[in-house]
Amino acid sequence: MRKIGIIFILSVFISCSKKEVKIPADVIPRDTMIVILAEIHLAEATIQVLNVDVNDSTKIASFGLYRYIFSKHNISQDLFKKSFDYYRSEPAYFHTMYDEVITHLSEDQAKYSPLPITPPRIERPVKDSVVKPMPVKNSVVRPMPVKK
User: Fold this and answer.
1) Which among 10, 40, 43, 47 could bridge 65 via Cys, Cβ 3.0 to 4.6 Å?
2) What share of the chain is helix, strand, coil (3-state, %, to 5)?
3) Are 101 and 34 in contact (CB under 8 A)?
4) Rounded to whole angstroms, how far apart are CA atoms 76 and 70?
């Protein structure tokens, strides 16, 4: 009975351990893929911000931006698609990659943000020493008459 318990505990530890992902040589390396994915998301956001009509001009603009990104990293569209499909086939690994893509985009946003993120400044009223409130003398509070 004790052996069964030990085997059960070992199998739980083995099944919960992270699986080492071997990246094939014909796939874009992980770090490069993270940068490429971040740039693609920026390109897509640019198209949305420009509010390009949802027709052929959107396709032309997006293909031009994709071609620029692919040529910048010396890769082809086919290699990108193959690499993307490979990483997508490993969901847990792909999820951690996308966490890094989001981190990369957030760092870029903080670096290139035109305005520093600071809380608004609250102006305090200036106390004037010349003008003093007048004291009220002999003030008596009288109750208001009640109408019957």
Assistant:
1) 43
2) 60, 0, 40
3) yes
4) 6
The one-letter amino acid code at 69 reads I
What CA–CA distance (Å, rounded) separates 14 from 30? 25
Q: Which two tokens stand for residue 93?
A: 């690994």
If we measure between CA atoms, which residue out of 68, 63, 75 comes closest to residue 32?
75
pTM (two decimals):
0.60
Query: CB count, 10 Å around CB of 38?
Result: 21
Tokens of 96: 């951690």
For the chain, first and last CA: distance in Å? 94
Boundaries of every domain in the chain: 28-110
Tokens of 146: 């009640």
Name the token pair of 69.
């990104």
DSSP category for residue 132: -
